[in-house]
Design brief:
Number of domains: 3
Number of helices: 13
Strand content: 15-25%
Oligomer: single chain
Largest sheet: 4 strands, mixed
Low-confidence stretches: 467-473
Helix content: 40-55%
Strand order of the largest sheet: 2-3-1-4
Number of strands: 20
Mean pLDDT: 89
């Protein structure tokens, strides 16, 4: 128990350090550029809230806040940001004017530093590698849900998907060239799925499935209701169970049963549920040898119920490989995935909406899950490449308050040959800041629902609700 608590604390510290590093480096870019271009820097703070420490050095107030989330740099000559950074201690009207070029340089420095940090992380990932599961390296179908759109269209386990919606795919999960993402971002009533079976290439048209969700849950996106092929490896054999009596061992690979190959553990679980009294002959691979092992399911405790099982636990990671993508490849993939996401959100026909994006709570949750996995720190560094590129691109959007908005205002100033009226600028900046803060609260509402303990409780409440739609494919 003590070791578990220590591990949890260690993971939280790792996430806290990495999460804060991403934001502080971005703000450091603005700070260094402002010093270089001679801007007046009022404050540079790490973390928010009531300062635990602050000191004025060379005219700049440095501080360490009490809320350990990110940081900020106060640049009164760039734009009024009182709603975020607090009211300025100086009269902006008395500060010397700065050129539009200086404003652009300072604004672009933050995203530039985020990109530099992404490249640094990418170089480390290139050197040490990062774990890649089978779902990230295969397009072979492992399981097709009964009565799903995929099954009705004729897709089967073992089929290798070549393209979805006319776009070639090379993996099941992820944001680039993946089966799941190309299904999600499709817009037609039916999706063309091109696949290979027994050496023959075929194409079927699948009508995507969308689950019904309550108004306060994230809306469901398009699905085919298929799972990727994952090697069924036994992680543990329970004592006094049919599996133990039959001689099954941890590390055994179940290639099939009763002359039927399986590509995903779900297939065996489903068969046992439907045929609880049948004797199975499992086709097992052990240390290169092939064995046929008979085993008969029996009712065993599962949670608070008795269900027919043989008494094994699956290795949920499957076969994991270590890949060493180059920094250029990592940054390129991060840029394309971010642009594809923005494009999907912007498209009126897409199911991807603003509510499907993640805010600080969602990102924090992702980091924790990554660190909990085997080789988690490598996965966290790999994800940090994506996140830094994402931070750089989103900040370059031409929206007031964001860095892209500062650049647009500076360009307008250069064309008008005079600064934008300060009063107008204050209203625009404050209004946009309120909208962005409101959006962050909105997305946090959905992110909190994805926390494991919250999701479990909500699922229990929905299961007990008499109005819940119980029809599932």
């Amino acid at each position: 128990m003590l070791l578990h608590i220590i591990r949890v604390i260690f993971i939280l510290l790792e996430v806290l350090i990495l999460f804060n590093l991403l934001i502080v480096v971005h703000e450091l870019g603005h700070f260094l550029a402002a010093r270089w271009r001679g801007l007046f820097v009022e404050k540079f703070g790490v973390w928010f809230g009531k300062p635990l420490w602050k000191k004025k050095i060379n005219g700049v107030q440095y501080s360490l806040g009490s809320l350990p989330f990110g940081g900020f740099v106060a640049l009164p000559q760039l734009a009024p940001m009182d709603i975020i950074e607090g009211k300025a201690d100086v009269d902006r009207a008395r500060l010397p004017r700065i050129s539009a070029l200086d404003k652009i340089i300072v604004a672009i420095a933050g995203p530039f530093f985020s990109l530099l940090l992404a490249i640094c992380f990418a170089a480390i990932v290139w050197a040490v590698g990062h774990p890649v599961g089978e779902a990230d390296s295969t397009t072979v179908i492992g399981y097709v849900m009964p009565d799903s759109p995929a099954q009705k269209a004729g897709l089967q386990p073992g089929d290798k998907i070549l393209s979805v919606d006319g776009k070639p795919v090379r993996r099941f999960l992820g944001m680039n060239d993946s089966v799941i993402w190309d299904v999600v971002r499709s817009e037609g009533d039916k999706i063309a799925v091109r696949f290979q079976r027994d050496g023959k290439v075929q194409t079927v048209w699948v009508e995507p499935y969308k689950a019904e969700t309550r108004g306060w849950r994230r809306k469901s996106v398009r699905q085919l209701l298929v799972s990727p092929a994952e090697t069924p490896i036994i992680a543990k054999v329970e004592r006094n169970t049919p599996a133990a009596a039959a001689g099954l061992r941890a590390g055994d690979i179940i290639r099939g049963f009763d002359q039927t190959p399986i590509y995903n553990p779900i297939a065996l679980l489903e068969y046992i549920n439907k045929h609880p009294d049948n004797l199975l002959v499992l086709h097992v691979e052990r240390g290169g040898a092939k064995l046929d092992i008979p085993v008969k399911p029996t009712p065993l405790p599962t949670g608070d119920q008795m269900k027919p099982r043989i008494g094994i636990e699956w290795d949920t990671t499957g076969i994991v490989s270590i890949q060493h993508p180059s920094p250029i490849e990592q940054v390129y993939n991060s840029v394309t995935s971010t642009l594809k996401t923005i494009g999907a959100v912007a498209s009126p026909k897409s199911d991807v909406k603003l509510q499907h994006l993640s805010g600080p709570v969602g990102i924090w949750n992702i980091y924790i899950r990554l660190f909990e996995a085997e080789g988690g720190w490598k996965l966290a560094l790999w994800f940090s490449v994506i996140l830094n590129v994402n931070l750089a691109i989103l900040n370059m959007l031409p929206i007031p308050v964001l860095d892209g908005g500062h650049i647009v205002l500076a360009l307008i100033e250069s064309m008008r040959r005079k600064p934008v009226n300060m009063r107008v600028l204050e209203v625009v900046q404050t209004s946009c800041a309120v909208v962005i803060i409101g959006y962050m609260l909105y997305i946090t509402f959905f992110d909190v629902q994805d926390l494991p303990f919250v999701r479990k409780k909500l699922d229990q409440l929905e299961a007990q609700s008499p109005t819940k739609n119980s029809q599932t494919p």
